[in-house]
Every structure is written in structure tokens, then in C-alpha cells.
Design goal:
Elements lengths: L5 E7 L15 E7 L3 H11 L5 H20 L4 H4 L1 H14 L1
Antiparallel strand pairs: 1-2
Length: 97
């Protein structure tokens, strides 16, 4: 039986660029899955009041969940071996806040 995951679509669009001579990119749309409900994670991070800016709470939650899901899916990759214990400790600390 296939493992069920949550499916998401994220669209990233440039609004303005710091350097006027940078080439403007077309919007990027990415479909991905995650074992967690990312909206629940966003709300949990917001409720912890870690950041003064609510947008930073959302940025942090999305970035963290996307990053850790890739690490989890590729746990056998040598690149991530050293990170795994630190990520585990970080997640425990974050959940205990």
C-alpha cells in the first residue's frame, strides 16, 4: 500500500529586485508532497511567537518543512549525514518552545 502524503503547490513570483540590472524571472510553480500538514505547522510556529514578524513565521515554517522533508527523503545521501543529528535536536528544541 502506498504511503499517503499531503500534496501542495507553491508559486514563487518576483515582485521587485534589489539590482535593477538583474534579469526578471518567470514565476516558478512547484508541486511537492510532505508527510506533515504544512498549514498546521505554520499555525503552530505563529502561535509560538518566535518572530516579531508573522511573515517570518510563515517563511520559516515553509522553508523548514521543505528542507527537512528533502533531507528525510534522502537520508542515505552522504551530504545529509552530518546534518541529521543537528536537525533532530533542533526539531526537539523547536517543539518544546
Amino acid at each position: 500500500m502506498a504511503k499517503r502524503t499531503n500534496k501542495y503547490k507553491l508559486t514563487l513570483e518576483e515582485i521587485s529586485l534589489a539590482k535593477e540590472d538583474d534579469v526578471k524571472n518567470d514565476p516558478l510553480t512547484l508541486e511537492f508532497d510532505n508527510h506533515d500538514n504544512i498549514f498546521n505547522i505554520i499555525n503552530a510556529i505563529k502561535s509560538k511567537n518566535i518572530f516579531d514578524d508573522e511573515n517570518q513565521s510563515t517563511e520559516f515554517a515553509i522553508g523548514l518543512k521543505m528542507f527537512t522533508e528533502v533531507v528525510l527523503k534522502n537520508r542515505d545521501q552522504e551530504l545529509f549525514k552530518e546534518l541529521q543529528p543537528a536537525i533532530g535536536e533542533f526539531m526537539k528544541k523547536l517543539k518544546s518552545k
